[in-house]
Structures
1.
Amino acid sequence: MFNKEVYIERRKRLHSSISNGIVLILGNNEAPMNYPDNTYHFRQDSTFLYFFGLNHPSYAAIMDLDENKDIIFGNDVEIDDIIWMGPQASVAEQAKEVGVDNTKPFNGLFAYIQNAVKQGRKIHFTPPYRADNMILIEELTGIKAKDTKNAASVELIKAIVSLRNIKDKYEIAHLDEIMSVGYEMHTTAMRLAKDGAHEQYITGAVESVVLKHGGHISFPIILSKRGETLHNHLHNNTLKNGDLLLVDCGFESSMGYATDNTRTFPVGGVFTQKQREIYEIVLAANNNVRDAIKPGILYKDMHLLAAKTIASGMKDLGLMKGDIDEAVAAGAHALFMPHGLGHMMGLDVHDMEDYGENYVGYSEGMQRSSQFGTAYLRLARELKTNFVLTNEPGIYFIPALMDKWKAENINTDFINFDKVNEYRDFGGIRLEDDILVTENGGRIMGDKRIPITPEELNNIVGK
Ligand code: GLY
Ligand code: MN
């Protein structure tokens, strides 16, 4: 946990940015796997962590904006809990650590909120994403569980996004520190990528790194030689020298902060010429974006910069043709990069995605593109100092997509389908770094970049 002043300051800022009512922030509960006492790994709600810091199940909190007080609701452990789980600090003792003086048993939440509803006071909450909390909101407010997402407070969402999008110095220091675990995850995969190795074995070794460091994975590990499947969670292949292995994984610290990196490299460490040509294009797209990032620019323009770098590289190789600006305007590059360049990152690997992507990644009045590819761009807004985001361009050869575009004559002015077909079994390459927007530029987070040049990869893969 951070120092209590950090949480006090965050709550103070939220109090002053919303006019009136009650902000209701529900923590998460334990979730049963197959019977109630056998639970999944507990993950606290990120909004609860941001304002109240306590990584403990079955708590809720309110910020009463009219009475200017904060209360944490939760039950102290009883003798049965102590017998099975050992002694634990009381809710009041825990609350003090995050600067909250008022606590009540969990049931007190019902009277508090139901009274406020009767008085016609506004109850602000973020969109719930777990069924138990949807039901709880129904019990507290009378809003049907299925309607609770739509009943979320837009005023609250916007106020929290304004706070959480700008990382404070403590978050930045913490993120910089945990990048070393992401580094270890990736270099572990690189060293194990030898002829005959199994994807599942490497995945297990990568996951063991996060457990050793007292955290978890920030999302299910993507590790496959079938890297053209963007979120490939199958690890059922045996690797052979020369296969391109795509590894996209990250660490989630015990405080809930995420890392998210992708590397792609040839098993055994040596690219074929064909692989290296495509690799260099993705690397150029990544580096061009990194060099151009600074406050005041639109991330949508960085997406288009990556798209143009890719289109131009593909034209040099004969896979695309025509005018690059026109090709990108038509969305032709999306045959190869059918996803957005990146997303905000922080307490969630896709930060605050539970609130709705547009609130986080698009500013007021900014229209989300409906064009295939750019429509998936999660972050398009103007960048500000201390944003933390991902830069993750890629080139993929997806046979089903290639066949569809060819059959439907999509972007035939810009794509050489016969040449593209020569890459049918190529797979995919993505290169992802986590970037902090600084006062006059951007920097890759952590004290060293995960190996990325062909030379660096050659020195570590399979070694
Ligand atoms: N690294 C996984 C994702 O950004 O979707
Ligand atoms: Mn990512």
Note: The chain has a mean pLDDT of 97.
2.
Amino acid sequence: MTILDGRKISNDIKDEIKETVDQMKANGEKVPHLAAVLVGDDGASLTYVGSKVRACERIGFESTLVHLPDSTTEEELLDKVHELNNNDDIDGYIVQLPLPKQIDSQKVLLAVDPKKDVDGFHPTNFGNMALDMPTFIPATPFGIMELLERFDVETSGKHAVVIGRSHIVGRPMSILMSQKAKRGNCTVTLTHSRTKDIEKFTKDADIIISALGVPNFLKADMVKDGVVIIDVGITRVPDESKPRGYAITGDVDFESVSKKASFITPVPGGVGPMTIAMLLKNTLLARENRRA
Ligand code: GUN
């Protein structure tokens, strides 16, 4: 069994990006500038956005955090989005989800300039991805594909079962795993909350990508020997023994499932760090596209 160590691979990717940034600096070029918009004070979102900004500092990107109050109106957020679209110094930006309930997320995502949409959430970019055209791939699915690539996990002809149909993870994962590419060529089953007898699918799966958000949902008796496990779950479960009072828990019962798996991502330290590395990669791409 091999642990798909996302922390190590993400550090390798950040080092690679840093080398490119150092070269840009040496050439007197502008370095990539990522902005993140956070509305409200959701604990998890604050943590994610903080990590994204710190990662920028580490590799020499410029970064801007736009922190707006929970009471921000849709109009005010759209104004900020237009400002970022028109700010020539910003190469790419993200609007952290979820947004407060008074704001229509879809309207906001549609307003983001696709050239700066380093999350890959705009329909133009999502459509490009679905049609195998070059574009920004959403960071979490992009990170999973990169993990499979760097650990040389065979995917061609395999049955990949995706659990969860979110626009951020499950849906794009189902598209990427089926694409005609070196890391792809899977037969894909996309399961979700209305799927009947999910075990029927997981027991047949060669690769399982779980993005459900139910701690320890996937047990050893639901998978076959040699399965490849990608655990995207990051639920905060109260745990007095931890300094913060909670433990980050995946969808997969690691203890039992890892005994049957050929490859498995840990939580934390698997998919999570990869998401940040790939966001940085998309931001570098945004800079390069704008320079070209
Ligand atoms: N919320 C959870 N994951 C993501 C992500 O990848 N990007 C944004 N913008 N918000 C998120």
Note: The first helix runs from residue 6 to 26.
3.
Amino acid sequence: MVTPRVIVVGTGIAGLVAALRAARTHTVTLVTKAELGESNTRYAQGGIAAVMFPDDSVGAHIDDTLAAGAGLNSREAVEILCAEGPDRIRDLVALGVEFDHENGLLARGREAAHSSARVLHAGGDATGAGIESALVRAVRASNVSVLEFTFVRDLLVVDGQVRGVETVDSAGAIRRLEADAVILASGGAGQLYAHTTNPAVATGDGAAAAFRAGARLADVEFYQFHPTSLAVPGNFLVSEAVRGEGALLLDATGRRFMADWHPDAELAPRDVVARGIARQVAVQDGAPVLLDATGLGAAFLEARFPGIDRVSRAHGFDWSREPIPVTPAAHYWMGGIETDLRGRSSLPGLYAVGEVASTGVHGANRLASNSLLESLVFAWRSVDSLGQPWPEDHPAPDTVLRDPIGSDGEPFVRAELQHLLWDTAGMFRSAPALESARSRIAGWSAPSGLSFAALEDRNLLELAGLLVGAALARRESRGAHFRDDYPEADPRFARHSTVQVTPIAPGPHATKETSHALV
Ligand code: SIN
């Protein structure tokens, strides 16, 4: 019997876990545009949330996740995440990941909007790096074929079924790789924004390729901004776990200000803290707010947060003695390729796991440290459903279709797009700002060429148009999506948004102009 083939795209936790698990039953090719393991996962600090302690409960983790998600989570997906999470953590340990321990027990941190300390970490604040290095070792020792520095430009679709990928190598050579299934685990798109905690590779390539192939995307307007990155070029993440250990946010005069915005102050949901900081910065004429960790002591800071300690000192800050300047930055995309509870997209043969997917777990605002867990749980579930019949697609009746972007506008400039989105589709949005972004985006021509930068630019421009359109359509404020002109949540909008490219044979709802629907 011929062993079925699967292509996994992306080498963060979702891709590595999917590849390792699939390799037991499939011939696996793992493709990444960078070196193996370069991904958002590698830079994750705070950790991975899971119910591993007797004073915690799956029910409490579910409740916290739903509360953060502001009415837009899929309850079933959240229940799966929280219930299956602990077993998947044990599987991760079996794959070689070493979490930190204290007095012989797993160590745990607290992060915002968690009712219990349930965030496991590794190497203090090097959790992602610890996970990546163990999984990369396991992949290198497995029979998974790895293609590094290989860009997945598009998906191969034959008779409505995904049959592989079209790749471009760093010399510009195009190749077709065929497979029985493709698992996209290609991460988020933080590079849409001028300020982001994400690495340079986070350009939304998988979501853009899936969209062009006809897969439905969901909730693309929901982008999470992390409240605290170091206010220096590069926006190095300063983990929420620092506030979980007791660090305070201070205004320029040294006053704690977050209690003005939420009773949980520094540990309020992430979107609330990010907006609170941004408003305070505006009041202070652009001066950054300060994170005061001096009460935690030099020895503790160095041992618990060695990475932040090293980087902040390299920038000239001794955070054990003085508060450090912090600022919000784009961090995590809740939207992505719409999937069911087994990672299956609307396009037969295409799975999506990790940040590129929209499973419904995170709703309108992701609970801190739930993303590594989501990647793990849903990568596992996707692989376990390989080979099963594809469920019939039931698009919502008003799912609206759109035409791809044009090719006769101004030359595209990535930095201009990043500033445009930061200014108009960032933490604060409004119809006039989003409309102006929409017309600027429409004025750029689709970047062409086979360099990785050109391929990324094409994807960023595609996704920017979708994000702005969805943000315009959602005339309310919910979770990470805040509209100055509609500052309250509106129950009529307590639904997912979807977007889909015009198919080859347009259905009755096809339109040239409108690209988004709330369903
Ligand atoms: C952090 O360490 O603050 C990041 C955790 C996360 O984004 O889940």
Note: The two ends are 43 Å apart (CA to CA).
4.
Amino acid sequence: MTANSSTKKHHLTIDGRGLAQGLLEQFKLQVQELSLHHKIIPGLAVILVGDDPASQLYVATKTQRVRQMGIKSQDFYLPKQAKMPDLQQLVQKLNNDHAIHAILIQLPLPDHLSSRQIIDLINPAKDVDGLHSQNVAFLANGQPKIIPCTPAGCLYLLQQVFPAGISGKNVVVIGRSHLVGRPMAWLLMQQNATVTIAHRYTKDLALHCQRADIIIAAAGSAGLVKGGWVRPGAVVIDVGINRLPNPNAARGYDLLGDVAFDEVQGKAAAITPVPGGVGPMTVAFLIHNTIKLCYQSLEKPYPNILKI
Ligand code: NAD
């Protein structure tokens, strides 16, 4: 974590990039150990359906990082008209491939495909984002086998900010998606936090947030969380990634979180920036989960990085 130079020591900007880098150094050693002692290279397969440029960019970034770790990464691109049997065939092939230990289906899928049906085709032992119904049940029951990458990354960040834990803290999770909001809430409950799950039908979201010790914003709505919503001293984790067109920006768009960073920064005790907060943690935990699944395929124990 780095102290924000403009606000001195009481307000921290959580350095997701730096924390992820620290983890990646450990993961690289684990990959080397697997290769040296067990003659095995972890293998990750990523399936992308359609030509959404944002998804393509995510996949390219993930693949680059994963390969830098010494992990074998294979990307499979299917056209946006792909049908259920095409995916079934591909997932089945990867389930049977001994060199592949982890399978990720990049979401969202085109509307005609059911993500639930497709994710449930993955062998649960290769389900790197922990979204298979069986893995969801284990997590909801408080005995996770594999934790979805983004919530795992957020929990890791919270563990750095609160080394003594978050027991009894009031947490508002904004968003109830299967990918982020719900698994996040289950994890926090497991850590004995008092959790409020907010969503697009929640009334008085500002009031819920004002009572929170921790706010986790995963709504996909740029600048939703305003300065006035945040209690002084609260901790704010911004999961949102929103692309706002800006012809003057180098990439043609600005990347904004769900939190009005400039307003909240001076009030929160700690806040994650966008970019450079949760995003790098998601990639780090994708790598973590890939290595973990590889160790599990060998029936070897894997170190518990998340203290749960
Ligand atoms: P989603 O669209 O599946 O779910 C959004 C959730 O937010 C829904 O439950 C919805 O009810 C709620 N919501 C939307 N607008 C709201 C509002 N105004 N008030 C309260 N609740 C509201 O999205 P998702 O997949 O959960 O992703 C959420 C955001 O996180 C997106 O911006 C996404 O790009 C980003 N994301 C980032 C990472 C990362 O690594 N940083 C990973 C996954 C998702």
Note: Residues 148-281 form a domain with the Rossmann fold fold (CATH 3.40.50.720).
